[in-house]
Amino acid sequence: MKKQLFILLILVIGLSFCFTGCNNEKIMKAKQYPLEDFFKNPEKTAYQISPDGKYYSFMAPYEDRMNIFVQAVGQDSAIRLTSETDRDIAGYFWPNNEQILFVKDQGGDENYRLYAVNIDGSNLVCFTDFEGVRTQIIDELDEIPEEVIIGMNKRNPQVFDPYRLNIVTGELTMLYENPGNIMGWLFDHDGKLRAASAIVDGVNTQLLYRETENDEFQPVLTTNFKETVSPMFFTFDNKDVYAVSNLNRDKTAVVIFDIANGEEKEVLYENPDYDVSSVFYSEKRKVLTSASYTSWKRERHFFDEQTKQLFDRLNSELGEYELGISDATKDEDKFIVRTYSDRSLGAYYIYDKTTDQLSKIADVSPWIDENDMANVTPIEYEARDGLKIAGYLTLPKGYTMETAQNLPVVVNPHGGPWARDNWGFNPEIQFLANRGYAILQMNFRGSTGYGKKFWEASFKQWGLTMQDDITDGVNWLIDQGIADPERIAIYGGSYGGYATLQGLVVTPELYAAAVDYVGVSNLFTFMKTIPPYWEPMLNMMYEMVGHPKEDSLQLAATSPALNADKIMTPLFIAQGANDPRVNKAESDQMVEALKERGIEVQYLVKDNEGHGFRNEENRFDFYRAMEEFLSGYLKEE
After folding, report:
1. Tens digits of residue pLDDT in 37-62
2. Which residues contact residue 286 at a Cβ distance below 8 angstroms, ignoring those fewer than 6 apart?
3. For residues 543 and 459, what is the distance between their CA atoms, to the nearest angstrom?
4. pTM across the whole model
5. What residue numbers bound the domain in which 109 lies?
6. Residues catalogued as catalytic
7. Is residue 593 part of a domain?
8. How many helical (H) and strand (E) elements, i.e. helices and strands, does the chain have?
């Protein structure tokens, strides 16, 4: 269920009064929650279960940092295994019944180190205590409890070599020296390194294969990077692979791929409208179970009747919520189930298949009553060139599309940009709605999940048609009568921060205020300061974003910091000092350019953060400042 090829991504990159148009007799004002309720750490989250089903684990706050706890199934008390006080633990898993492995970085630098601790809290060790080195988990090796496969850029900062780690002795064995262009590795069900994914000539991708670990890797398929063949895991006889592929089609589909000969053998499932993103299987029964894709919310296609019956059983009791299975025991008789909705972070349950009992373990954020939260509604509008753009509109509690008029709006383009917004509980969105704002999110061209053509429509369109999609969404909302044209703000992080700044350049009259969170401001300096392990993909970035020499005029015209003379809108910028993706200099130069012109700009820098604020107190500071800033420009006079 957990094995899959890890492909490095390119760019992963309070108002309590009644607003204009509000009818006091018909609109019930929502209960206003403290800011901290939206952004404080969950009470308990990230539940997993031990392979033998005797314990479950979770993350919970200890001195305001998320740490790992373990509790025996059926018992009321838990043991805290970790005592991290400087930084949240980023993630963890059970490699066996006696240990837990976890990763943590330093101050947001994303150079993750791998640690282990026994489930009684003893023997805390760091396996990759190397300065400036990033550790990846490549394969958890579920069938080999004393070993895992990790990747590290220890030998060369630009590339990751695969290592076999013995988590009992700490012995590290490099399995293959990355020649400099391999981005991902695939192991078979016996833990043997059999396949890899590489970049050729900076823009083509290549699948490599070998029959045994004694053989040399040979190329079996070379494609342009615009085509996707992503092996997920080997077939259960270790001969072929299950993959998601868009070869000769627009949408990615689930296929059986003849890895030795580089050919598709069979299409197992294809959705006509959306990319398939994930494939799952039963380790115990050796069968494919399901595939998932996202329309306006997550959906599943079932390959296996037993898995479909399991979800039907869970939905019969939890059907008012969306749900997912986040973990299972080795014999697949106990499952950790997570529920969620657009108005709730949901709860965790444990389902015992042998007794058919479903028991709640914990609510994630019990201090929030979902009945006070706003509905997130899928919407669609047409861009100026006719392209259909999907998105979400969240109205303050009590409003509908029919009753909402002249509301203050926060436009929220997502990061990535090659990612997408999803339906579900988003604390930022609910916080803003709770303060009386309508929030517009859009999956502009380039957003993932809508097929190859929609993705490619974004190439070299940063600040151009991608920005038009955002502008067209705002104008659609104005035309609907929902938005007050004088009270619209734009806020985004990462690429969304870039889109925020570019919106102020190309449509300065559209926005009354703007918030840029760790956003790119200068496309030239941005591509010069990327992390070293992105450099093998730099030619792809040139094709997708623009070449600093060949496309210099375009990049200059679409770099907000170089066009600060056009910005008139009040701006708030937030930045992590240790951000490895969007360097602090991106924000510094934007602030300097605006201050030279006397434009009001508020600047918040956190010295112990990176690409987004993880520490709780820093989140509080940021959103408190943002709330006050937006209120000052969007509130009704």
Report:
1. 999 999 999 999 999 999 999 999 99
2. 236
3. 7
4. 0.92
5. 58-180
6. 494, 579, 611
7. yes
8. 11, 35
